[in-house]
Design a protein that fits this description.
34% helix; 5-stranded mixed sheet; Alpha-Beta Plaits
Length: 396
């Protein structure tokens, strides 16, 4: 079974809150700490305490670190993590989180990611939070990570760079493509470390995915908030299929993206590109997005083995920052392809149970060469097939 974790970010997410929620959900803290201790750095400790926020029981993690004044670069942190001999998935996930941070910070400060100087997010406490979260996910056997829409605060926050808008620029960049909502709370609800954990580790965003729930936990922030519990929730379980009997169905993945900044020509070209890349079907649906903006959802059905390839085409052709996917099944009737001749030119025919249909592209080509209407070419082709195959007039 696939282990799944879903982070409910109704009050945002921070590194210590994500870490604390996993400990609250049952990850043994001593076992997690033994993994973190493989990193060749000292001067830190972690303790867990039971607490409440707005009447909800939770775990608060207190990460204490000696002040060293060291400002680490991304390259420095990569060296520490690779030297630590962490479990492979813990190492890879931790590296992915710091890579996401480095890429965003590099873009904001206009320097190569390897040369980015981490301030808050390069401190010992951030390293412990990131590696601790990844280690707790591993101890709990989590294979897939999902998250709800992410809540952020507003106002200003104090950082090593001085006063910055809330949410911080790094948080906004890291959450590109994620569903977010800002609320009128002058607190940094989502931190760069929390946003980086989501950006690097989640498979997608939305409501609680289909799972058999085995545990849940709440990680508490340090502040007491008046209007909402300052918590991040995690739900742990094993992946289950949706409530649909898919026996005998063909597994497919539905990929989709919402677009409000592309032309009709781009949409038409993308449909053709998706089909050329291996999609079994592709379509466009008009939608209304926030603030009443007209937009389109472009979707494609693909074999699971081609999902990444087709998603790449969708992103490249439209410029979208993200593609979502869901597993489905489809049932198809048997179909055959034949060919008939109309006015001396071949026209392909699709044949299914009780149905005959001329291939439109072929009919259009013949119509262009003969001057006949497309529908007339299709009618002649379909009648020719029925006559050849011995179908009666009521077969269609």
């Amino acid at each position: 079974m696939t282990g799944v974790a879903w982070f409910h970010c109704f009050a945002g997410i921070a590194g210590d809150m994500a870490f604390g929620s996993l400990i609250d959900a049952g990850a043994p803290l001593p076992e997690v700490l033994r993994i973190i201790e493989r990193i060749p750095i000292g001067g830190w400790s972690v303790s867990a305490s039971a607490t409440e926020r707005n009447g909800i029981a939770a775990t608060h993690l207190d990460v204490r670190c000696a002040e060293t004044g060291i400002i680490r670069t991304h390259a420095h942190i990569v060296g520490l993590l690779e030297e630590a001999r962490l479990p492979s998935r813990v190492r890879d996930r931790s590296l992915a989180v710091f890579a996401a941070l480095a890429e965003v910070e590099g873009r904001l400060h206009r320097r190569p990611p390897a040369q980015v100087h981490f301030h808050e997010v390069g401190g010992l406490d951030a390293i412990v939070d990131v590696v601790g979260t990844c280690a707790a996910l591993e101890v709990l056997g989590v294979d897939e990570i999902w998250a709800s829409p992410v809540t952020t605060g507003m106002g200003m926050v104090r950082t090593a760079h001085g006063m910055l808008p809330n949410p911080a620029p790094a948080v906004v960049s890291l959450l590109a493509g994620a569903p977010t909502v800002g609320i009128d709370v002058p607190v940094e609800l989502t931190t760069p470390t929390g946003a980086a954990l989501l950006a690097a580790l989640t498979s997608g965003y939305g409501p609680l995915p289909a799972m058999t729930i085995t545990a849940t936990g709440f990680g508490a922030g340090t502040r007491e908030l008046d209007d909402l519990p300052n918590l991040t929730q995690v739900v742990i379980g094993s992946k289950t299929p949706v409530g649909l009997d898919v026996s005998g169905g063909q597994p497919v993945v539905e990929l989709s993206a919402n677009l409000d900044d592309v032309t009709g020509e781009t949409l038409a070209h993308t449909i053709a590109a998706l089909l050329s890349a291996g999609a079994v079907d592709a379509w466009v649906t008009p939608i209304i997005m926030k603030k009443g903006r007209p937009a389109h959802t472009i979707s494609a059905l693909v074999d699971p083995s081609l999902a990444a390839q087709v998603a790449g085409v969708l992103m490249a052709e439209t410029g979208t920052l993200g593609v979502r996917g869901r597993e489905l099944a489809r049932w198809t009737s048997r179909r055959d392809v034949g060919s008939v001749v109309v006015e001396g030119l071949p026209v392909r025919i699709k044949v299914g149970p009780g149905r005959v249909k001329a291939e439109h592209d072929d009919a259009a080509r013949v119509a262009g060469l003969t001057g006949l209407p497309v529908r007339e070419v299709a009618r002649i082709a379909e009648e020719a097939w029925r006559s050849t195959a011995g179908w009666g007039d009521d077969a269609s």
